[in-house]
Design brief:
single chain, 48% helix, SDR family oxidoreductase, binds NADPH dihydro-nicotinamide-adenine-dinucleotide phosphate, two-stranded parallel sheet, SDR_oxidoreductase, oxidoreductase, NAD(P)-bd_dom_sf, Sc_DH/Rdtase_CS, alpha/beta, 9 helices
Length: 286
């Protein structure tokens, strides 16, 4: 059974702005208590003052594994328990794969993948002992497939999803649920001040120009409060899904990409099936 609204304790990373802040506000509006994690907690000061006793803001850089474990321990000590954990902190480093420095590529993975892994590892002993809990992994439209100039971001979110599918299966026996949330476009700082980019190689200028045209024509950005509303529906469910798409654009794209994948697999079925044939292992009696 899910814990009733108004009585839940949330742990939300990257809560200073954007989607994380919208999730924090929605949880507070529902009467819940929140541990809001941010590298800089100053943007949360007003909220803390306005929700005395129900909002604990703690500084946390999710790439620091020891700090993650310490923050989780502090959160549990403060509110006595955790019910909903939102791995939301994320960065977007745009660029063609050839342009990435090693440090840039690793930084993308450190926050979007390892940060969520450390938080998942740190909360699991607590949720497992309680026999309940719901971990939300904020993934992306970028994990539906790879897109030019989004390769490292997609890689980080694919890694997050692979890890989270396994976690969902490992955690199920302990009553802990995992949902991979796949948002489309929302008005946040991810594409403005939160964005970093590689040093551009001239050879990719035509592709970059084409992409910019496509984004200008095709991007649909929504109010983060709509994502928060969907998340509130999700956490109220006794049987939450492994994956939840947020937005019509990402919904249509998911079906389109899945169909194209199935068509390609079907077109190559003969070759695929021929690559498997039971033969005795070396040393087995014939
Ligand atoms: P924002 O840039 O507005 O917010 C990102 C948040 O993550 C900030 O609070 C930021 O804190 C925090 N953060 C970044 N790095 C770290 C770190 N190392 N440790 C702790 N916190 C960190 O972006 P969004 O709100 O859009 O992004 C939230 C999540 O949603 C991300 O995982 C993103 O990939 C995902 N997403 C967003 C989409 C969108 O359209 N906006 C679409 C698909 C997915 P700080 O202020 O310290 O930088």
């Amino acid at each position: 059974m899910t814990t009733a609204s108004g009585n839940r304790v949330w742990f939300i990373t990257g809560a200073s702005k954007g989607l994380g802040r919208a999730f924090t506000l929605a949880a507070l509006e529902a009467g819940d208590r929140v541990v809001a994690l941010a590298r800089d907690t100053a943007p949360l000061d007003e909220l803390v003052a306005a929700h005395e006793g129900r909002l604990l803001a703690l500084p946390l850089d999710v790439t620091d594994r020891d700090a993650v474990f310490a923050a989780v321990a502090r959160a549990v000590e403060h509110f006595g328990r955790l019910d909903i954990v939102v791995n939301n902190a994320g960065i977007l480093h745009l660029g063609m794969l050839e342009e990435f420095t090693e440090a840039q590529a690793r930084a993308q993975m450190e926050t979007n993948f390892f940060g969520a892994l450390w938080v998942s590892q740190a909360v699991m002993p607590h949720l497992r002992a309680r026999g309940s809990g719901h971990i939300l992994q904020i993934s992306s439209i970028g994990a539906l497939g790879g897109f030019p100039s989004n390769g490292m971001y997609s890689a980080s979110k694919f890694a997050l999803e692979g890890m989270s599918e396994a976690l969902a299966m490992e955690a199920a026996a302990f009553g802990v649920k995992v949902t991979i949330v796949q948002p489309g476009g929302y008005w946040t700082d991810l594409y403005t001040t939160g964005l970093t980019a590689t040093e551009p190689l001239e050879a990719y200028d035509p592709l970059r120009a084409e992409l910019q045209k496509q984004w200008a024509e095709g991007s649909v950005d929504s109010d983060p409060r709509l994502a928060a509303e969907a998340v509130m529906h999700l956490v109220a469910s006794d049987d939450p899904p492994l994956r939840l798409l947020l937005g019509s654009m990402v919904y249509d794209l998911a079906f389109d990409i899945s169909r194209r994948r199935m068509d390609t697999w079907a077109a190559w079925e003969e070759v695929s099936r021929a690559a498997e044939h039971a033969i005795p292992a070396p040393g087995d009696p014939a």
